[in-house]
Amino acid sequence: METYIQIVLFLLFQLCFIVQLYYLVSSHISLAGYKPHEELPTVLIPVSVIIAARNEAQNLQENLPSILEQNYPDFEVVVINDCSYDASDEVLEDMQRRYANLKVVTITEHDRFKTGKKFALTLGIKASKNEYLLFTDADCKPVSPNWITRMVANFGGGAQIVLGYSPFYKTRSFLNWFTRYESVKAATNYLSCALNGDAYMGVGRNLAYTKTLFFSEKGFASHMHVLSGDDDLFVNQHATPDNAAIEIHPDTFMYTAAKSTLSSWYRQKKRHAGVGKLYKRRHRKMLIFDGVSGFLFYMLLILCLVCKFEPLLALGLLLFRLIIQLLIYNKVFKKLDGKDLIWYLPFFDIIYYMYLIGFGLVGLLLKTTQWK
């Protein structure tokens, strides 16, 4: 009986290995071979940059000039000052005197009506004057004055959604290393799927879509009651094989600071944890299979080694998977400013799948009610 159970568990371990190999070869390899256009395109379409900000006075002062001074011929920046009680209004008033392309929409707190980020973004979109919309956050800073140019150059040929990338600044802490690793892995997933014609999410720190798409699909109406999802749920519901493009040229990276404490990191992840259950069914299945198979792969590997059941074969499969990961992720991580993280791949990969399972359970059990 004991031998029979060991055989079943080892077969399950092999199945998890096959599933993990499938994701690597069928999906992630496409991003490894993808090459962004190096030549700076010429783009003339008018653009509106939308930023929702609540109590972001310092971030606005530090980051907004880099957006307002983009090397682009025709754009406006719409900042929604969402019920701020810090010095955001003074900062924005000062910048309006210096920048003619800055438009400010102010929301005031109401005792009975509590607003959220989706409401703020909707007001910003309505106040914008252009068809092409580019989104980021107040705590983000473009690495280049060509951010707008390269992002909106992807509109055309039927594209209505452009998925960008937003890495974290590097610091010397374990939490920062893992946060950056998790961000690179998440980007690897959603960018690869978009390249394969099945975009399922984007990140609001660097995302573009058309005003026509937003209003034709009634904006965030179907998930306005959900705290998060102004970015990933919108993309998940409205991306098609033909209307979504990606842009990962380094000029388009929108940098931001990662959370520096476990408590702030946990609160951030908790806000987003429950959104995945609202994805389309095929995307939920894909993410569940990836998370569960990766988690079980490591748990069953440990069990095989502890019980001394085919330990050499188990280690051989682990080594084979690691070699394939290194071959693919070495190229991907370089593209996504995570080259230094490749050395920690075996260690962070285990933590990553434990993290996925842990926050998957958090998403089922917990609910939050404010965005900032």
Automatic annotation (TrEMBL):
Domain Glycosyltransferase 2-like: 48-180
Superkingdom assignment: Bacteria
Record carries keyword Hydrolase: no
Transmembrane segments: 6-25, 287-306, 312-329, 341-366
Swiss-Prot/TrEMBL keywords: Glycosyltransferase, Membrane, Transferase, Transmembrane, Transmembrane helix
A GO molecular-function annotation: glycosyltransferase activity
Signal peptide: none
Keyword Lipid biosynthesis: no
Homology family: Belongs to the glycosyltransferase 2 family.
Name recorded for this polypeptide: Glycosyltransferase
Species, as recorded: Mucilaginibacter ginsenosidivorax
